[in-house]
Amino acid sequence: MNYDLIVIGSGPGGYVAAIRASQLGLKTAIVERESLGGICLNWGCIPTKALIKSAEVFEYINHAAEYGITVGESQVDFEAMVKRSRGVADGMSKGVQFLMRKNKIDVVMGTGKLKSKGVVTVTNANGELQDLTAKHIILATGGRSRELPNLKQDGAKVIGYRQAMVLPKKPASMIIVGSGAIGIEFAYVYNAIGTKVTVVEFLDNIVPLEDEEVSKQLARTLKKQGINIMTSSNVESVDSSGDICKVQVKTANGVETLEAEIVLSAVGISTNIENLGLEENGVQTDRGKVVVDDYYRTNVEGVYAIGDIVKGQALAHVASAEGIICVEKIAGQNPHPLDYNNIPGCTYCSPEVASVGYTEKAAIAAGYTDLKIGKFPFSASGKASAAGAKDGFVKLIFDGKYGEFLGAHMIGHNVTEMIAECVAARKLEATGHEIIKTVHPHPTMSEAIMEAAAAAYGEVIHL
């Protein structure tokens, strides 16, 4: 079987790259060892959002009286929540199957490995081997839950994100180690449905990649919701031998022993680069990542890598963008390299968090000494008040000298749907004054972007 392009891995990087290649006239095959759509569609982005929606609906019902609606007593059917989440994921995976057929992409189920120049060996579930050949091979094998030496996962009591989505019953208590997007989203879900949740974060702030003001606001809100948050704390050991896990946590005040039914490790991801044939074929790696140039070419001709296994943020939309750039370059086009400082990041807890570009600290560290910063709280937003979602704010950062739009940071209801405006504005090199003069519809949450820009320049109306 000979192709122009073989993609190993069918996550949001791999399947998007395969489709774009087919559109550009390349005969394409995709190799997948588990389920089309990869982790994102099957065990990550999509099913977690389904669980989050169930948690949100439960919260709406419990607060219905605040909206003038009386309902009877509600309770969580945890098994039904999980079943719905899996159904959503299965539907999305079937959608990718349809896209493969539509774009005439051959799907080869099995584990792919670089054999030699231009050759991929696929081992199927029965152990049978098949060789495929292609001039170009893209590695898009993604990542998995990272394991720490002192936090070994047993899949039952000490778990990763996959098990957290399909637990057989709702746990009474859970300790979540790590407060990035994965940890915080699961903290929100389980707390909302009645699990006693503690979040342990090694750094000084939760969601540590976010602007410090956003991190602190989110911590205050989650604490009000009943989540116990421990920052500047480190898990030293976990004893899961009994019915309850005993977790030793080192804090500034000494070592504490916490107890919980489940310990969820959410300390990042490890890349899936083992057993890919990288060493045998001389593909260069560095600290668990495949080394690539701006167009995702490795040091070996005809071999490329995208997604979680290369530099840049480990996000689904980053992998998709990288796949498209990589394939367009292969096809002889001239795509622009990806701007990794204009990638939106989203955390889908309640309130949501979304951001792009420089944080305030990062802007100062990058040499921007004259900053214009504007904040607009949702407490001053008519739409937010009507929606009962006044928690949060929009914070915009501009360079005072030239007006460059440096960063946007949001916390509040539905802000993950709002951040794309700021990504587009930065891509188009819009200034603060241009955002101020862009008429926004009223009443909307998105008005807060215009108002925050106006606040940065002393022109805000509704504060």
Whole-number mean pLDDT: 96
Number of DSSP helical runs: 13
Question: What's the β-strand tally?
Answer: 24
Share in helix? 25-40%
Oligomer: single chain
Structural class comes to alpha/beta
How much strand?
Answer: 25-35%
Q: Low-confidence stretches at least 5 residues in length (pLDDT < 50)?
A: none
Largest sheet, strands/sense/barrel: 7 strands, mixed
The radius of gyration over CA amounts to 23 Å
Distance separating the two termini: 66 Å
Overall form: globular
Can you characterise this structure?
With 463 residues, this protein is of the alpha/beta class. It is built from 13 helices and 24 strands.
Features:
463 residues, alpha/beta, five-stranded parallel sheet, 13 helices, globular
Give a nutshell description of this structure.
The protein is of the alpha/beta class. It is 30% helix and 26% strand.
